[in-house]
Amino acid sequence: MSISPRKQTQQVLVGDVKVGGGAPIVVQSMTNTDTADIASTVQQIIELSMAGSELVRVTVNTEEAAKAVPEIRNQLDQKGFSVPIVGDFHFNGHKLLEKYPACAEALSKFRINPGNVGRGKNRDPQFQQMIEFACRYDKPVRIGVNGGSLDQSVLTRLLDENRKKANPQELPAITREAIVLSALESAAKAQEYGLGKDKIILSCKISNVQELISIYQDISERCDYALHLGLTEAGMGSKGIVSSSAALAVLMQQGIGDTIRISLTPEPGTARTKEVVVAQELLQTMGFRSFTPLVIACPGCGRTTSDYFQRLAQDIQAYLRDQMPIWKNKYHGVEEMEVAVMGCVVNGPGESKNANIGISLPGTGESPVAPVYEDGVKTVTLKGDKIAEEFQVLVEKYIESHYSAQ
To answer: Which of this chain's residues are annotated to bind [4Fe-4S] cluster (predicted)?
Structure first.
């Protein structure tokens, strides 16, 4: 199956990051620190940026958080991290932006939820106020509709209209339409209030995979705004990874989506950066972008009763990812390299030959030798207790000799 051409959308500039308009799909993430805790928030933004997040969103929910944002931006700049910060506003964003103009200036984008910008008669004036701040400070806006906080006025209106039809639709279909309409109508109002189309990104997030696919297919047909993809709450561990990958892979395969986030619930003790790694690996395995050399490793079987090859694959993968912040500015194209770490003679030599550099370790009962292949040719056979260390040296030498300095 071939990948559909990317749908042409309006390009939006967020800081110095291009979103939409044919630009590469952007990876973003969000902090889970208290934004008012400047030190912790700066540290987590740095970690997310180092992992590869190209946009980082922070909650701006209190006066303390709003006051902290300019200093967070200042400290990041001093440390050499230019990653754009996105301000996530709910309920009181119009008040915070009015009272703390330095917060508005420090942010690279505002995120507004139409369902949480105001209730009843306050909804439109407060939404307009947020958009006017975006215009004043020349900031793009993501209008992010969430199924869990859907603008009830839109849903109620559609339900009333549906009841009058000869063949009324089921509630799920009405809800999907309400989510899409909330985004489109809010974007239209934003443009009426003076915000250019090149300043608008839309998202329509829910947690159900099939519903999310249907919603984004619909909104993609009805507009050319840049689109941000993601589930509202993907879940924890493998469930979160599978849910996000299943939904986003289908949409991106169809050419839909300009920026993505994998909204994982962090497992206790797990780094926030995991969601960034998953997003990158999803884009790389589908062939959209390359971020770090890929390690190809066999799953193991009765022929590989030792865990030696698994530990070597893990070590090599960690080493390659750790080095990428340095290598990406030093070696052109290294992120497209493939490294094979195989566990026995069945597929080991073949997979190693197909990779840029690969090693075929001995399986149970096999001769304790490990041939290494570079560009399909066996270059050396490693033996002894230092195979892992010697192979890592060979990987380093391969990179130095095959990827030109930028």
So the answer is: 298, 301, 344, 351
Report the binding-site residues: 298, 301, 344, 351
170-224 pLDDT, tens per residue? Answer: 999 999 999 999 999 999 999 999 999 999 999 999 999 999 999 999 999 999 9
| CA distances for 207 relative to 133, 162, 186, angstroms | 31, 24, 22
Contacts 24+ apart (CB under 8 A), 122-126: 123/151, 123/153, 124/189, 126/94
The string of DSSP letters for 257-301 reads: -SEE---EEPPTT--TTHHHHHHHHHHHHTTS---SPEEEE----
The distance of Cα 90 from the centroid of its chain, to the nearest Å, equals: 22
Instruction: Please report, in angstroms and rounded to a whole number, the separation of the first and last CA atoms in the chain.
Output: 35
CB 283 within 8 A of CB 25: yes
Give CA angle at 318 (316, 323), nearest 5°.
95
**Dihedrals φ, ψ of 295, to 5°?**
-105, 120
* Nearest by Cα to 112 from 201, 242, 23, 236: 201
257 Cβ neighbours under 8 A, 6+ residues apart: 25, 216, 227, 228, 229, 248, 251
- Between CA 243 and CA 248 the distance in angstroms is 9
pTM strictly above 0.90: yes
Q: Is 221 exposed, middle or buried (0-12, 13-18, 19+ CB in 10 A)?
A: exposed
Q: Which residues carry a binding-site annotation for [4Fe-4S] cluster?
A: 298, 301, 344, 351
Per residue, what are the HEC states of 133-144?
Answer: HHHHCCCCEEEE
199: CB partners within 8 A, 6+ apart: 12, 134, 139, 140, 141
Q: What's the distance, CA 217 to chain centroid?
A: 19
CB 368 within 8 A of CB 350: no
The backbone torsions φ and ψ at residue 306, rounded to the nearest 5 degrees and listed phi first, read -85, 155
Could you tell me the two tokens for 300?
A: 């193991």
* Tokens at 278, concatenated: 């998953």
